[in-house]
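To illustrate this point, we now present one chain and its tokenised fold:
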Amino acid sequence: MKAPDFSYEKPTSISDVLALLANDELDCQLLAGGQSLMPMMNFRMANPGTLVDISGVSELAGITECTDTIKIGAMVRYCELEQSTIIKTHCPLINLVLPYVAHAAIRNRGTIGGSIGLSDPAAELPAVLLALDGSIEVTSGDGVRLEPASSFFKGVYETACEPDELITKIILPKAHSQQKFGFHEVARRHGDYAMAGVCIAQDSDLSIRVAFFGVADKAIRATNVERLLSGSASFSQDVIKDAQNATSEIEFEGDMNASPEAKQHIANVVLERALKGMK
């Protein structure tokens, strides 16, 4: 299949991007890394009137260390995250996750903003943001706003970002020495989308955030699981079993790879393995 006809724009500033997005007649679609969008266009799942290539917008690049946070430009590629000393030092959960994001060729082109903006239920990075309690900086002609990750992901390919808005940064709190993190996923092959996966962050006060992906219509926090795990410095088999029972709060959705029942079973497996591997 080939993509349908479209117009092409390559702006060089955020203001130019926003001007294009504000023009309803253009029917714009943003092109970041293109690792999801281009196949979708070729299969006629996406049919934009105008493709807006934002790869030349330098304002969307870079990883910045601030006092308490790390700010990641929306156009930062996975491979840049892998190579970043700032990420290795201050965002260990991202370090755990990145080797499982697709394949090296995809990581060389795919961007963090593109993944967050797509909101694929089986993608790892939305769950990372939920577990880390991150925020998304969204810019429009009306200004800049911060949207918490907890309210950003709405459903399959649906976010709180409006058609005239642009994701400009991802903001994550810097990790502290007493925090612990866990991650595990199960996929048919390494690099494939996960059948189920989980990201976990435990704070110094032993509160915990547990975010599943690949099990519902979006990445989700498992609040009942978190309640049972919070306060535990280590996780006995009994505590893990109770947490696994609490995944019944999730409305598991089946797909071509697994039924809802199978999804719940896999979710319980990855939860146990992630908890036992916390570091």
In short: The two ends are 46 Å apart (CA to CA). The mean pLDDT is 96. The first helix runs from residue 14 to 21.
